[in-house]
Amino acid sequence: MSTDLSHLIKAYDVRGTVPDELDPVVARAIGAAFAYAVVLPEAPTGDPGATTRPGAVVGHDMRDSGPDLVEAFAAGLTDAGVDVTRIGLCSTDGLYHASGVLGVPGAMFTASHNPARYNGIKLCRAGARPVGQDTGLAEVRHLAEGYLDGGTPAAAAVSGSITDRDTLADYAAFLRGLVDLSGIRPLKVVVDAGNGMGGHTVPAVLGTGAGLPALPLDVVPLYFELDGAFPNHEANPLDPKNIVDLRAAVVEHDADLGLAFDGDADRCFVVDEHGDPVSPSAITALVGLREVEKEKQRHGDVTPVVIHNLITSRAVPDFLTAAGARTVRTRVGHSFIKAQMAENDAVFGGEHSAHYYFRDFFFADTGMLAAMHVLAAVGSQPHPLSAVAEIYEPYVASGEINSTVADVVTARSRVVEAYVTQQGAGPVEVDELDGLTVSHWGSHPQWWFNLRASNTEPLLRLNVEAADQDIMEKVRDDVLSLVRCVDAGASTLTDEERA
């Protein structure tokens, strides 16, 4: 039977269990496929013996399976005549930095916050440009499947070399060059690394671990020990149960704020001095305004662009438009954000999932740089983070609510019937950029919701936002009653109220 890697190589990355789905044999085949699908076509010349040789950079997170998989992947690259720079332990944004600075494609071995038995690969083109289903990943999968079926290409006339390089200090210095924290007031910050790569990068960037000068920061570390088994909690800060320790520590230490990073430290979640979560939408507005102001100071009368996905709060475009920016609304997912970032030369992009993207960081996402912006915003004025964040959270959101349904299409159709079909030419606005978005924002009471189907599970994901708590709860409960096929009497909104 022919090899099928569809369970492993997905739309945006490679992700699977080790060793039954991803082992060194598979990693080597993917490395060779990456060479021929991405690295060699991008090289100045396709001749591996040329003076300027094709290259790639490879790193890995703290999972035990990482080094062996990297070794095999690198062998697939060198067999194809590609010179490999191994940077060892790094965060995903550390890999993006290396790809951007070195100007070569990259591969990051990580499964983010997935359990220890998982590993995966995030691939990028030179300059940290994304590799997704439509930008090379489908070809990587096709080639790798062929190689595993016995069609491994002949080795290049001249094999590539392997060089080990530590880029952590360069990464830390690069980020410090983008946000100057040296002059802020002293801050105490609790950082929960979740036993992930934040425990490697935070001491270098916010401390003196990379030989950089001390900053006016008192960092209280939680779970900085690198451990891919995640013995303390899952390294996914968007799940409330995973920031319980952080919230308590912020209060216990009388800290100014808390930061939580996911496993590969490309996402950052923020809590205020009371231990209360600050929504990623508020962070998107706060950081977006800082980037817009910086762009205006650089270039005067310009209209900077900021990207946000359709789940972020309406406050994001409200604040940024008022500041003279143009906002672009896009689908959920890093490949869509990154594509729009590059297409619009956007200065910044934010997602509800706490991914933050910066033009100054190769249009790629970096949780560390977003965290530095928050520290700068708090430390450059006298008010606590709660007072700052409150400004950017004028509306009430439900958060993402998942419903497991037997028939996604039928469940969605009940919502369409109630909110769209029966409304006729009513006041709601409807779009299907990503799932179903119904908006009553143009008139009172103000509310909107988005209902999206999962790509991998029988789930419908609901996000609701309104101008006040009561309306948000009514819309939330009404849509959920339709999705979950609760008795119609449980629906909290009448047809007239929906209109």
Automatic annotation (TrEMBL):
Identify the InterPro entries for this entry. Answer: A-D-PHexomutase_a/b/a-I, A-D-PHexomutase_a/b/a-I/II/III, A-D-PHexomutase_a/b/a-II, A-D-PHexomutase_a/b/a-III, A-D-PHexomutase_C, A-D-PHexomutase_C_sf, Alpha-D-phosphohexomutase_SF
Q: Which domain of life is it from?
A: Bacteria
UniProt keyword annotations, A-Z: Isomerase, Magnesium, Metal-binding, Phosphoprotein
UniProt-listed Pfam families: PGM_PMM_I, PGM_PMM_II, PGM_PMM_III, PGM_PMM_IV
Q: Does the keyword Phosphoprotein apply?
A: yes
Gene3D superfamilies reported for this sequence: Alpha-D-Glucose-1,6-Bisphosphate, subunit A, domain 3, Alpha-D-phosphohexomutase, C-terminal domain
Per UniProt, residues of the Alpha-D-phosphohexomutase alpha/beta/alpha domain are 9-135, 170-275, 285-395
For this entry, list what GO says about its biological process.
carbohydrate metabolic process
Question: What's the cofactor?
Answer: Mg(2+)
What residue stretches are annotated with the Alpha-D-phosphohexomutase C-terminal domain? Answer: 400-480
Q: Which CDD domains match?
A: PMM_PGM
MF terms from GO for this chain are: intramolecular phosphotransferase activity; metal ion binding
In the record, the note on similarity to other proteins reads: Belongs to the phosphohexose mutase family.
**Name by which UniProt lists this protein:** Phosphomannomutase/phosphoglucomutase
Q: Which organism is it from?
A: Cellulosimicrobium arenosum
